[in-house]
């Protein structure tokens, strides 16, 4: 008998339109001292299993059938008050986003003491001492001082440690970690995973690690269950499941994981869901609408489309009428780099390293404090009137990270894509504009029917395609992609990245590709720049950067990439080391 | 922290100076103050002398400065209709209005917040639906109608409560209060409910929607996952997070309760500032109107200052200077 035993679990979400079964006939067991992974794409039902164990299913969700046993005790049918005692006491949970899982108005001490006293017979003073002790155990330096602080005074990684301390308040037997490191940087992710691993061993608790990240699964878990549309399609020792998968879905999912160790020609698709890929007519730039802007700009070309010279950006952190009392935060500190015409240039770094600020400076969303931004030889940072800026704005476009907030929900897709065309007067009339919009939508793989719909009718990946169509609508030469796929599933990510790659080759675009995901960078980019604390540490050809990193920070980043050595390499379309 | 309050204070003073300018313009340039003060048979020489004596020939900036200096010492001139100092008139009416406003604001808060919390937590219970329906009535019925209905039921039919006036008042020297006598308290009930009903429904709906918002957040889910009791989650974790918008709205509403108690005071013949102001408007009594304007502006500024300070008490994130975090 294991610590946790789940048999035939089915979770239903009844609604007016009929019942949606989020989890279907799932069996799972977890032993003490092991980390059991639960992997799948969004909507696969992996978080629902965690919530069902906790008794925290969002209404109208309910357990339709099946049994959940912890150490032989059935818990799925306990009355609410009994269940509340199980929560926290026997089973704890760690959530994804450390920024939002702590109450911002209470000190860490208050939240800890409250939870400790809920589950243990302790005086206020003992609970306080225990709280400090817990913070020490999860590796927070100077716990006695920090315990009195508020959550916003902790960094993201430290906050996740506080969350873990809160989950450990009651000495639980089972911890459910729901995407515990998804919101964190690679280096912090490694620390948190190590912490979870060591707590699991030392305290002999069972851990269920819910994630969509194959790298995390490969590095951390002992056993893993792969979920697809509410079912567990494959279960077993992690090495076996990832290294020699049996089920077709697992095979294609493993194949779709961006590899840090090999360079592939295209991102492998998750063929299990895909079906045959659609073939598009190749665009002939000489005739096509998208090629028209080229001719007039083609004389007097520079080798470097973008050149940054000593770029600086300060943000005011304290305003004052007295200059001496003002405080600045230098987000970009003396960055100089060149992006060649027709290449994909990658910019990588942890959160707060200034990579997105550089993108916004180039696109003109921010005005730099110092330095020059040359676009095809013209310093666009110092242009005054909007009439002077316009031609440059037309030539560069941006694709943002969050596909949900970057499209106006009140506009039809046709209007969203047509807006830049109208703004820059690129079409001779309504009829041509409509034809161009439909052609663009067709070309990003959405089909012309999409034009009449609203953004909310599309999934995240489809919305990102709309963003791409909108960006192409100005006939740009330069595209800035700021983490374009980090909000998407692996299979969708592969589609979007392939689309970007195809378009880049077809339209001879220049791309600035920003990401924190090194394996993706390796597949995507020709050259990569590494940023840290607003400075550019290193710029190198992609393969050189991965094989022979020069700067210590780059070496650290490359070292921290999850090792996926034993993942199955079947069916990969490998490319010789240099393209 | 001290810098934060100091900045707010400076802003308050700027606002007061601007409102003072409007009040001064009204006082000085709407009609001729000399014409209002003298009879028909005054000679032009006497008028000129009076004009000189009142300083009306000085440059405008000097007159404005003098006006503000006097206003700071509560000297607002003499009422045209009562021939009494405006400051005295207002001082005699202020307690009635303030008592009414504060009692109705307390009523709105003490009833509205619990109702909002209840309807936020038990979204689908029948009692919540009753509350929501009643609150719709509270929002859509005009104040004077509610007042007249209350008078009709409780005074005319049931003879339980007085239909007008403040009842007996106790003079504390600087303040005449109706809170210390039975008849005074009785007289307060209906006007306070009439005036506070709209604010109550507003606060209730605000707290409800904020509660719904907060209950969806991760930290509430995490609190549940830690096995904390429902009471601790709803009333300590959730309620405190709904307070910021509630404080903002309540502050602004308290200001408008004081400033616009006019209708309620008319319906119940409440001897407060609203009635005084109404009479001043009817008789073009500019000094009273100007003083009223300044007083209300002052109250708004004061309330907003208190609200800003309350923010820092509730939300630790505001306390850090400039909002920088570690």
TrEMBL record, chain A:
Keywords (A to Z) from UniProt: ATP-binding, Nucleotide-binding, Transport
InterPro entries in alphabetical order: AAA+_ATPase, ABC_transp_ATP-bind, ABC_transporter-like_ATP-bd, ABC_transporter-like_CS, Oligopep_ABC_C, P-loop_NTPase
SMART domains: AAA
Domain ABC transporter, chain residue ranges per copy: 4-254, 306-558
MF GO annotations: ATP binding; ATP hydrolysis activity
A GO biological-process term: transmembrane transport
PROSITE patterns: ABC_TRANSPORTER_1, ABC_TRANSPORTER_2
Localization terms from the record: Cell inner membrane
Domain of life: Bacteria
Family: Belongs to the ABC transporter superfamily.
Name of the protein described by the UniProt record: Oligopeptide transport ATP-binding protein OppD
Species, as recorded: Lutibaculum baratangense AMV1
UniProtKB/TrEMBL annotation, chain B:
Pfam families noted in UniProt: BPD_transp_1, BPD_transp_1_N
Transmembrane stretches, start-end: 12-30, 100-118, 130-154, 174-198, 243-268, 288-311
Gene3D superfamilies linked: MetI-like (1.10.3720.10)
Record keywords: Cell membrane, Membrane, Transmembrane, Transmembrane helix, Transport
Entry GO terms, CC: plasma membrane
Subcellular location: Cell membrane
Alphabetized InterPro entries for the sequence: BPD_transp_1_N, MetI-like, MetI-like_sf
Record-annotated ABC transmembrane type-1 domain positions: 94-311
Name the UniProt record assigns to this protein: Putative transport system permease protein
Source species taxonomy: Bacteria, Pseudomonadati, Pseudomonadota, Alphaproteobacteria, Hyphomicrobiales
